[in-house]
Amino acid sequence: MADECFGHPRLAVIYDPLDPDRSDLDAYLQIAEEFKARRVLDIGCGTGVFALLLADRGIEVVGVDPALASIDVAHAKPGSERVRWICGDATDLPSLQVDLATMTANVAQAVADPQVWQKTLRGAYEALRPGGHLVFETRDPARRAWEEWTRELSYRVTEIPGVGSVESWVQLIEVSLPLVKFRWTYVFAADGQVLTSDSTLRFREREEVERDLVAHGYVVEDVRDAPDRPGREFVFLARRPDL
Questions:
Q1: Which residues of the chain fall short of a pLDDT of 70?
Q2: pTM score > 0.85 for this model?
Q3: I need a surface site. Which of 23, 40, 187, 195 has the fewest CB within 10 A?
Q4: How does the average pLDDT of the chain come out, rounded?
């Protein structure tokens, strides 16, 4: 099940305007270039921002996401016909042979259920060609990112064309490591509607992630820093071995 911020039609439409700075994707674009990827699977593609950036570079892209409302937003964007969109997840994909599979932003951590996480790693592995790579990021639990998830630090009012003024903020609900639960609240000035979206992220230790990858047949080639959040995240680069 997708969180309401991705699955509710009214919230999916405002997701991009509320988070317009996607410089975090620059590192993934560089990795795609580094590996000379011509076919990419974007797991948890959301509203299609990264998938369309790849398509703009002539890369063949499959974008998969469980939230139909987000897929609908992606479909409505210019150039969307160049991407193959799938409403679903990495646990049940068609036969693919991609050079690169990605899980950007919070996608890997949003797969909080351990069994679904294992199935996701397996699904990505099966989608890769031999020698292909899986790349994703996850926050370092030691940095305790959730301590910044407060109304005081996150409250803002955003003017969105065609929608009007929207208030939004995040509040922490529960910390029971490795799980952290939080709630986003959205208030639409146009009609006063208040919508909320609850999310749960799993904060995995670096060693745990490496063990999971190796257990599913990957070779962990590198664990990098996130250029836009230095010292706060791990970026894993894992390869499906050549035949």
A1: none
A2: yes
A3: 23
A4: 97
